[in-house]
Amino acid sequence: MTPDCVVVVDATGEEHRMLLQQCSTFDRLHAFLPGILSECRPDKAHIQKWYINRGQYDFVIDNGTNMNRLTRESDIWSTIEPGTKIVMRVINTEVSTVLSTSYQCYCGKWNDVKVDRVAVVDALKDGFINGFIITW
Q1: Residue 65 gets which letter from DSSP?
Q2: Which domains are present in the chain?
Q3: Where would I find the Ubiquitin-like domain in this sequence (predicted)?
């Protein structure tokens, strides 16, 4: 490893060597992301750009035993040393389309209830689910 270099691992696991000064702040590292992605295969770069354009990514320092999240305001940027490994992660959100819950019958038996998203939205608009009034 060259002196004053940091390893930046993109969201696909590819390692990129960068100068320490290029990774001294969130904004500097963000500014160099297009250059990093230009070194990737086009399909991998395209997917990562999609997350970056939506702000659905972050950086962490991985020292092998734990990870420290690097936010824009973080003081950790000033402590980054040569040889540090900075990992870019994409933030993937999952939307659940099924509501699952349990209720206890008066006889004591627990029953599972699964309702699809459309039924829940309709019930919320009408103010009730299965005849029960929803109050907030």
Answers
A1: S
A2: 5-90 (3.10.20.90), 98-133 (no CATH)
A3: 3-92
A 10 A CB-CB count for 26 gives: 16
The rounded distance, in Å, linking the Cα atoms of 94 and 78 is 34
How many angstroms separate the CA atoms of 112 and 7, rounded?
49
Nearest to 57 by CA among 38, 40, 71: 71
The residue with tokens 């209830």 is: 113
CB 114 within 8 A of CB 98: yes
pTM beyond 0.70: no
Beta partners for 57?
Answer: 90
Distance CA 127, CA 72 (A): 42
Q: 7, 84 in Cβ contact below 8 A?
A: yes
CA distance 22 to 28: 6
Q: What is the pLDDT of residues 99-131, one digit of tens each?
A: 566 666 667 777 776 666 666 666 666 555 444
Q: 78 phi and psi, to 5 degrees?
A: -75, -10
| Residues making up the chain, counted from first to last | 136
